[in-house]
Amino acid sequence: MWKGKFSSSVTIVVLILCAAANSIVKASFEDEVDIKRSDFPDGFLFGAATSSYQVEGANLEDGRSLCNWDVFCHIKGSIANGDSADIAEDHYHRYMEDIEILHSLGVDAYRFSISWSRVLPSMHFLSPFERFHCSCFFLSWVVVFDKHTRDHGGGKFGGVNQAGILFYNKIIDSLLSRGIEPFVTIHHFDYPQELEDRYGGWLSHLMQEDFVHFAEICFQSFGDRVKYWCTINEPNLFSEFAYERGTYPPAHCSPPFGNCSTGNSDVEPLIAVHNMLLGHAKTVKIYRERFKSEQRGVVGIVVHSFMYKPLTEDKRDKEAADRALAFNIAWILDPVVFGDYPPEMRHYHGSELPKFASEERIILRDSTDFIGINHYATLYAKDCIYSSCICNDSSCTKGSDRAIRGFVYTAAERDGVPIGEPTGMARFFVVPRGMEEIVEYAKKRYLNKPMFVTENGYSSPLNKVEDYHHDVKRINYLKSYLAFLARAIRNGADVRGYFLWTLMDDFEWVNGYSVRFGIYRVDPQTLNRTPKLSASWFRNFLSNCSLNYVESCNSISLMNTDESRAQSE
Ligand code: NOJ
Q1: Which pTM value belongs to this model?
Q2: Which one of 1, 322, 520, 536 has the minimum C-beta count within 10 Å?
Q3: How far does the centroid of ligand 1 lie from the alpha carbon of residue 268, in Å?
Q4: Keywords on this record (predicted)?
């Protein structure tokens, strides 16, 4: 299956020649390598990714119920500029356009997620009277809605919303008829608000069963056609933001991490992840026992995977970088590969870290067919076990000196010099080599389990006009990260696919629409989609032009809203 072509066919091209061929600014290793799609292994999936809440909108339509983010977005001050995803990119109505766009890009696969509250909403649907109030006074409507939800039940307790099933069926069928593989995330940060109200969402063990139930509905409804499943997206990042920093719903935290009305930043993230891991393992068990023989799919989990490098050459900082990897990445992956938390975490957390019962360890062990890596950036790591006491350094504060952070302070600068170029997102610095390093880390620690890069992409701030069309920085980012990914594969890493984040500018959680990751621009007023230069670059690459081409090496065309609409009619 793997061509093993790299050693023979990857041509080293002198920098100057590349520069003559196109306009991208060159830097180092990644620019010297003339990599093409055909240099990746046979069967390697190239795709683009989105998530339901970030693009769908239509949050009150066709029986969908409120999710945690719907409520959170409408609490003043939660989201930059008071943005919400009530409409988002209106993908719910424009999905055919977007699928035509994906088709015109030439992707092999499309990663998207299922909205839990669209498939398993509350049983209560809004009356026209309530809808009227909702559009005027969202919050008062939330109260009305929640009351009904509590009275009538929802989530696992309500019925399956056939309109929701129909929506995803249409997406899946349209993708497959265009030769695009659906790569489905079951849970990507959004869940029915009712599950929060009833028992506190992921802080409760009850959420495990609700999640398994939701996943089963997905397997039953879509598993005849979906062969790639991700159970949960980034449990590590979600729990950090939701229960440690308090910036994602349900906004729990405690000092010194933040000022929230409730929460315990030292402990709650551990509990939430514990429940997510067990929810994952139980889901995979059911898939393997009841669905796999017929459906023949694979199921993985997706981890937020920053790379960490020691801030100094000091041994203690080197250990801190290792700890940062263990406390962020191995926190999720050790349990699903080996059946328990990393020894480093057990050592520093002691009894705060929940324990798995022996039967739980059994179902956790080897409960992932692949590892999904979301990789964007690299940070420096500085020790906070010894250093803070020794040099009286003020950096080991605000929680860096606590077990939940692994006693690690992370920084983006060394001696005033940033680790890489900044992007639209705080702490997302461009360090292409990190892609190779993170893949190598997973390869070594998890004995080269199959991996997918489930997300990688570049964000620019809203006010950067060149990002609207001439997004050269995004192209540079993508090509350099891909070059390092290619090198990791050449060195034996079993990576089976790469998903670019993201297809179109979308709702970037607490940043709202103030940062943009898309290779398509979405006009904020009309919601029309137009390709940026990076879309042409990706299209070129997917048609086997070199990574270093911006202008086409083939004759190709990309769709915009008008064309993709016409096509989809
Ligand atoms: C990872 C998350 O899965 C995705 O939802 C988010 O938009 C990107 N990171 C960028 O922050």
Answers
A1: 0.91
A2: 1
A3: 22
A4: Hydrolase, Signal
